[in-house]
Prior knowledge:
- The structure is a single chain.
- This protein is of the alpha/beta class.
- The chain has a single domain (3-161), classed as Metallo-dependent phosphatases (Purple Acid Phosphatase, chain A, domain 2, 4-Layer Sandwich).
- 24% of the residues lie in helices and 22% in strands.
- It has five helices and eight strands; from the N terminus they run βααβαβαβββββα.
- It has helices spanning 14-19, 27-41, 61-67, 82-85, 155-161; strands at 3-6, 47-50, 71-75, 90-94, 97-101, 104-108, 124-127, 140-142.
- The strands form two sheets. Strands 1-2-3-4 form a four-stranded parallel β-sheet, with no helix packed on it.
- A hairpin with a 2-residue loop joins strand 5 (97-101) and strand 6 (104-108).
- The radius of gyration is 15 Å and the shape is globular.
- Belongs to the metallophosphoesterase superfamily. YfcE family.
- InterPro entries: Calcineurin-like_PHP_lpxH, Metallo-depent_PP-like.
- It comes from Allosphingosinicella deserti.
- This is Metallophosphoesterase.
Amino acid sequence: xxxxxxxxxxxxxxxxxxxxxxxxxxxxxxxxxxxxxxxxxxxxxxxxxxxxxxxxxxxxxxxxxxxxxxxxxxxxxxxxxxxxxxxxxxxxxxxxxxxxxxxxxxxxxxxxxxxxxxxxxxxxxxxxxxxxxxxxxxxxxxxxxxxxxxxxxxxxxxxxxx
Length: 162
């Protein structure tokens, strides 16, 4: 089992194409690329943490979750309505999480922190929300699809990028 991280897919959201200048001609094209990139990396037995802003329409969430590989955990973002949170298909849903992976304490939230639990003891902060536009501080990483070529990433990939 491999653990992956991602954020800010914004499935079905035409506004994201315009606001964040995503290189897609349509929402259908964006969604197809995101699903393909996800499933090319994440297998059925893998685990994935989505750090918020999953989809525009809560009615689309169950079908999307059914098409995406892995056990999916949601850390709620500002664009995740109640119906997204209650959709069948999530392994867990929360506003904030702390996990340990490969000997590293990881703080997970949709929003980037300037200070986080364990920051001065080696913990790292993974977040979304900023679509790659926020200058990070040491040990802070944006895992949004805009930063990572539309695909989920592993902790070793994140740490190798610096």
